[in-house]
Model the fold of this input.
Amino acid sequence: MRFVILVAVVAGTALVSYAQQNQPPAQAPQTTIRSTSQEVLLDVVVRDKKGRLVKDVTAKDFEVTDDGVPQTIRSFRLVTAPEAVSGTAVPGSTTPAGEKVPASLDPLRQVRIVTLVFDRLGTDARNNARIAVNDLLKSESGSNLFFGVFSIDQRLSILQQYTADKDSIRKAVAKVTSSASSLYKSESDKIEEELKTLATQDAASASVATPAAAPPNAGALVSVALAQLTLNMLQFSQTLDRTLQGRSTLFALKSLITEQYRLPGRKTLLFFCEGLYIPPEYTEEFQGLISYANRANVSVYGIDARGLVTYSQNGGAGSLLSEAASGSRSQQRSTYGPVTRDQVTSADRGEEAIRANSQNSLADISEKTGGFMIANSNDIRTNLRRITEDMDTHYELSYSPDIRTFDGHFRKIAVHVDRPDLRLQTRSGYFALPFVAGQTLMPFELPMLTALTTTPLPRDIPFRSTGLHFKNSTGEPEGVVVIDVPLEGIEFTKDEANPVYQTHFAVIAIFKDAQGSIIRKFSQDVPRQGPLDKLDAFKMGHFIYTQHAPLPVGRYTLETAIVDRKTGKTSAKKSAIVIPPVSPNVGISSLVRVRSVSPFDASESAAMNRDRLDLAVERSDDPFQVAAGKVSPGLDDTAKAGPGSALSYFFTVYAPPGSQTAPDLAIEFFQEGKLIGRGNPKLPAPDTHGVIPYIASTPLDSFKPGQYEMRVTVSQNGKAAAERTLFTIE
Done:
């Protein structure tokens, strides 16, 4: 037989190995989440009707319920000044009840941190934020108050580590608020409004004096079509922008909040923004963020830095609702011409309209975490002083709820004081989830975690998963997980009235070390809907999920699971992955089957992820993102021979640092241990990091049915590295 190896070269990094899939799974302990006794710590700000702070409330005056059950306060103290702390004993403590005692606290407990976060801001908002923060820094705060400065613009950036040096904070704030706003935005907005007017006027003129049974005026129809085409472009981009910005902001806030559990005491996050839009598919993630903040004792203060605006914040919602209604009416009236995007997306835009008032989400995260929202006011400075009062003077109390079952439901906290003239400001509650140091849990993860503890593992939904190894840009080892779910195995519901289909499922992946400890955990909740007439074609596709993270050298157990949230069906798998030692010599990543390679574009990638459920991680160091495009991995180890059929694999070669020439490459095929074909394609020169991404494609015309082994070997300076994978020809 004659074997031909066709080669394509791409730029970037990637990896994967089916050899790992064929190894027996490690005998690791069952997935069990252990939790110590839960303690809930509450900061409560008490004010009278005039907004003045109240300092004479005792522990006996407070009534606390958790999930409707009265709680016993275990500790109580009044924080009254930057460094002055008073303690009051409560029933159940070793000190007689009611006796005032000096506080004996960990010094870290008296540290207060303020996280200053600046989202994407326009010119006026940046000026307002800078003036307000500079005024805040003038107040006397004591030596135990530390500020950190961060910005969000598609990614989280730090401009100043936490410090008590106010001059350093001022410089960082000046830098983050001096960035130029997006060019041409105001001009683009003006043109968009003109297009809306033009489309409306031309549509009206096109129908004037036109018999109901006759086609409309051709010239007017062309004008309407062109205006609608341009509007569709802008509206589609705006929808993607809102989704991408909302997603990046949500995960940036999650990063800032969840790690703060490590430090005791009060933590404050000031979020300067122009509203907070939460994409509909991330509603549960948003509620989880609020729960994280409450468990980490972080109070969020959302600050809409635009100040007093002259239009209703509901204007965006009204506009979207108007467009949705207009699209629905035009679809009913239209007889001629193509269906517009407004018509086919009227239901989606109606849902977006409900969330277009971005101050609703901003108020939610503020009020439910014990803070408050600042908006629709040009006097941000006065409200920031009130935040300073909250930090300086508040009650801190704790209790231990008796949680018998961590079922993920929301446990509402209610705090009352039997004095009608007082107003309390505190946290709303949290999800009943076990606490695992260094990990955050979401309610949708619980069924999958339970599935991973079941013997035998459930197999209700067909899916594949594998663990892979490669190196990051610094040459350190990383682990990758790939989950491949055929969508035909997921439940879909039909809404004939709209008409749309809906589906809702979730996936999870956990890397555990030899002791059974969770090293890395990834998950994705996936609620989706689409046009009903596209359902059959959509169900023929696959959901591809990839994630990656640094992993020390060693052997790990990869645990993966999926849950259909509509039916409750689950499936789970366990396999082994080995992260090999980092060598100064030539190296190679795992091998991965290539489903497709798509030219990479941020907007196109987002659209693909949203509409086709190919939700690979959108990060610049994603191993499957290369300069030539996006590699979509596949986990099917079977292929069909025949004219035009080919087998494509992707791997990354790592040349020794400083190499000017590429290593030698050999690709071999074996059947039943016998070498049946070999090729020695030439590798291109490595990049500045010594990385050579590579795609090899082999025609299958000459292959007969059976099982084969593909072995890839790279060698240089007397050293070699190899990877292998198995596949079956049907």
